Amino acid sequence: MKKENLWLLINTGIMLVIGIVLVIVANTVIPKEPKDRLFNQVIQLENQETVEGVPAGSSYATIDYKADAVSRSGDVLGTVYNVKVRNGYKLSADDTSGYIELLIAIDENDLVFVEIVVLNQSNWTVKGIQNYIVEYYDGVLLEQIEKFPAYDAADLEAGATAVDSTGTIKNLIIRTLKVHFNIQDDPYIDYFGEGYTLEDDATFIPTEHVIYKQNVKDSSGNDAGTIYELEGTGEYLGYDGISSGSITMYVLFDENAEIISILMPDSLYGHTAGFKARNDAYLNEFIGLTILEIQAVIDENVDLKTGATGSRALIDILLAALSEVN
Prior knowledge:
This protein is of the alpha+beta class and 326 residues long. It is built from ten helices and eleven strands.
């Protein structure tokens, strides 16, 4: 064999070895999948454990499972949660529903990172959702996330059109983190302070929609307000047609008998989840009112569109029932 041919063969062999090494590096070191981008390195998801699973139905926002994020060297880098949203923002007419799948990572410093796995939403919402996740969810703490807006304020046009999806995403991320950190929510503390107590009002007579009344005392035993539970069932237009579901609300009054908050928990909202944020915004119209002023505000907003006609109608029925309580 000529010397030139030998060197050519040797160089070809070297190039092949280098190519094989580069391929191995590309496949095992360079982050390419969503799970790898969470920690900016190739990882494995191990010790998978179901949290809530995926419910049946045409609308949900759920924490499917969690797993340990393990590096190639075997170190546990943090915990990764897989969350899923099914809503009505379909990519095409052939889809039965819209679908979002995300990975939420919490590292050893309690910093939160989010990556999109699947984003099957209407074309006019996709940009806003992508911008929102990139803008806000990259190495942040739970305390910061709770103060984030419901959509990307830096891109009002794209963000605002995606507000139902991004609002659902924010709420689901917060719920996931509270599960992770074992935070037990007590929403009444924000309004009545630490050490408040509740007692059932024995003089109250329940109605069809106003289930109970509780009196609130502050930590010193002084009157701090009242809480009413409202509940009802009504029809709404779901993603699979007309359905029926219940809604439960808690109306909080201060010691001056003025509304300080209306709480409508996600877990007790049996209508289309995608429009809940709009109905929450509608309930803000009643803050500061007394019971006697509720009906007037309902009448003033009779033409207000929230995108959820059936749910809005049921909410009005519940509030009207409260306005009739003596």
